[in-house]
Amino acid sequence: RAKDAGGNEHCDYEPSLHANAEEKRQLEFSLRKALERGEMLLHYQPVVDAKTEKVVSFEALVRWNSSEHGFVSPGKFIPLAEDTRLIVPIGTWVMQEACKEAAGNWPSHVKVNINVSPEQLLEPDFAATVVQALSHSGLDPKRLEIEVTESIFLRDASVARKALEQCMALGCSVALDDFGTGYSSLGYLRKLKFSTIKVDRSFVQGAAQQSRESLAIIRAVVAMAESLGMTTTAEGVENEEEAEMIRSLRCNKIQGYHFGRPMPATDVRMLFVRSNAEAVRKRA
Ligand code: C2E
Ligand code: MG
Ligand code: MG
Ligand code: MG
């Protein structure tokens, strides 16, 4: 029986496997040209202080508007870019572009968060690309926070750590993204001084659905971060109930659709112009 089922599966699977491989090949072909064609752009999502609800940072999130495939989600092209190492030039572009945007158009108290893949971090000249992005843009290193996931420690942990320490020596901070979803060895929390732990959206959702486990985990992460001198950001907060729950758990910062979706750079600028006008009006 098992053999029969296996045989059937085999027949059903083959064509779709080929289709996937073919689709992937075409996507890769287009991805190779995306940067030079100017198809990459950045959206920015606000991160707010949990108490004051003031924007403390924007996370840069890359978008690909392909002439051949239309909008392709990062969930699809980032893994492909990582597999093909195209993430290295794409990541360098993201770093330069986001630093330039933050330095040129944002108030100086607002930081920028930039996601970095393991493949990028393990490049020997990673820190040099950060130095270059900072010096070209004139961005104060204190305003740059690099986001990495636990996956960086799965490979060359000491190389990854050194690269991040070089960035910290420049004055940048480092956040641990999607915390609790990867291979979580707590050992490296002892070795690397993250400024922020970002609690993954799955825990926020779980807690909102009254999952006692999710609540307990968020509580424990917040307590651990506090005693390590780190802050916490809750990811994926979608409504007021979730925001209220996160506040009661004493997360320091909140990110999610409830406070703002990822938006084009021009929308961010408009927001600052408007809030400036408001501040002036209040003072008058
Ligand atoms: P991430 O760094 O964890 O970014 C947060 C993701 O959650 C973003 O998805 C964001 O749009 C989404 N999100 C934010 N708030 C909410 C919410 O309230 N509800 C829901 N359902 N989702 C929310 P996005 O933009 O699709 O990016 C997905 C992932 O792709 C990112 O996850 C990050 O790992 C990766 N990525 C994005 N941009 C870059 C980049 O420039 N470089 C690298 N290496 N990776 C990137
Ligand atoms: Mg992130
Ligand atoms: Mg995240
Ligand atoms: Mg995530």
UniProtKB/TrEMBL annotation:
Domain EAL span(s) in chain numbering: 24-276
Name under which the protein is recorded: EAL domain-containing protein
Source organism of this protein record: Qipengyuania profundimaris
